[in-house]
Every structure is written in C-alpha cells, then in structure tokens.
Write a structure and sequence with these properties.
With 241 residues, the protein is mostly helical. It has 9 helices and no strands.
C-alpha cells in the first residue's frame, strides 16, 4: 500500500474488504440496505464505516481461520507442507484437489528437492530425517525462518499470504451470507434471496478453492526457497562468499 494509506496490505485484503462485505450482507438482510447503500455520505460517516468494517473483518477472521485453515485445510484435508515433503500419502480427494483445484502446489515435490529439505531441516533440528517426516510443522518452521531472509521470496510470500487471507475470510463471510439469505423473505420487485443464496454459495466454494491454491503456493514458496538457499540454518548467516 501507499505510505499515506492507513492500512497495510494484509489489513486491506484480510480485514477491511471482508468487513465491508459482511456489513453489506447484514444491512441487506436486516435493514433493507438503508444503511450501507445510499448516495450521500458525510466524512464522519465514511470514517465510522471504515472503522466498523475493519473491526468486523478482524472479528470474522477468527472463525474463518479456525474453520477453514486450521480445521478444514489441515485436519479434514492434508496440510500442503505434509504433501510436498512426502510426509502424508496422496488420497483420492488430495489427487482431485491437485488436478482440478490447486494444481502443482498440492502434490509432492521432486524427490531430490524433498531430500534436500529434510536433510537441511534435520541438521538444523538435530533430528533424524525419519523423525521430521512425522512432524511437517517443524520442517516448515525451519524453512520459513530461512526463506523470509530472501527478499524476493519474502515479497512473493507476502503476496500469497494476502491472497489466501482475503479468499479465506471472504469465503467464510460468503458462507455466513448464505445462512442469512436463507432466512430472508423476498419483497415485491426485489431480487429473490434464493438467487443471492446460490451466488453466495458459489462465491464461498470458489473462494475456498482459491484459498487452498494460494495457501499451498505460500508453503511451496517457503519450501523451495529453503531447499535452494545457501543460508546456514544453524547460525542464520549465509554460507556464500
């Protein structure tokens, strides 16, 4: 974001935009759009709306992270890191997601790359490769510490993080919107909530698939950078001269 803009990239993508969407949905269902959709706004009202949207987005991000990221993407499905380092076998649903939803980020890395990652992580943690295979989080933690020292990789990681945060949060808000629309009674001349419900459901599913893609791309960037980095994982200094 520009220096004069009062929010960081992640504030805007992860919280502010999502908060406005949720406020519009609540306003439409409960107040017939009299608050958010109007022609004239005072400066104070704009500032207040932005503040409320930001804090609403912050609150909505909590259940979004718990439900979509920490439960659905990491418990029901396989964590991308576990798949990429070969710590978890590919099930049918994982293969479907890899082929039809995420692509190459949701499948094992080449064996040579996996071996380098595990060996470097094992050296950093003073553990055996077999121990690390059963603990993908430890591998990711070491890899992330190294990858964020690479400026090019860090910039790409920030982009992927912003994108997966936006898609995760808005997908969750779209799911809430589906529930809200199901309870709304249509009025004469109004677009039926059934159409909006279908649209919100498509939005939730579509953005969740985009969340998986960028979430996996984030992990892939970390692991690939770690594999080809010359940084010494023991002392944080570069081995390159």
């Amino acid at each position: 974001m520009k220096d004069w803009f009062p929010f960081t990239d992640y504030d805007f993508y992860g919280y502010l935009a999502n908060g406005f969407i949720l406020l519009f949905a609540v306003d439409y269902v409960f107040y017939d759009s009299i608050m958010m959709i109007r022609q004239n706004w005072t400066f104070v009202e704009i500032v207040l709306a932005v503040a409320i949207a930001y804090f609403t987005g912050q609150i909505a991000a909590i259940p979004a992270s718990i439900l979509f990221e920490h439960w659905l993407a990491r418990r029901v499905l396989r964590p991308p890191t576990a798949l990429m380092i070969g710590a978890a076998p590919m099930r049918r649903i994982d293969k479907f997601i890899a082929r039809c939803v995420v692509g190459r980020y949701y499948e094992p890395l080449p064996k040579a790359t996996r071996d380098v990652i595990l060996q470097k992580a094992a050296a950093a943690n003073k553990k055996s490769v077999d121990e690390l295979v059963s603990d993908p989080e430890t591998v990711f933690g070491v890899a992330f510490t190294v990858a964020r020292q690479n400026e090019d990789a860090r910039q790409r990681m920030d982009i992927f993080r912003n994108q997966y945060g936006l898609n995760r949060n808005v997908a969750f808000t779209a799911l809430i919107t589906v529930c809200l629309f199901l309870g709304k009674t249509p009025k004469d001349g109004e677009l039926g909530p059934s159409y909006l419900t279908v649209f919100a459901l498509i939005l939730a599913v579509g953005l969740f698939s985009r969340f998986l893609k960028f979430y996996s791309a984030f992990a892939a960037e970390v692991l690939r950078t770690f594999a080809y980095s010359t940084t010494n994982t023991n002392d944080g200094e570069s081995d390159a001269t």
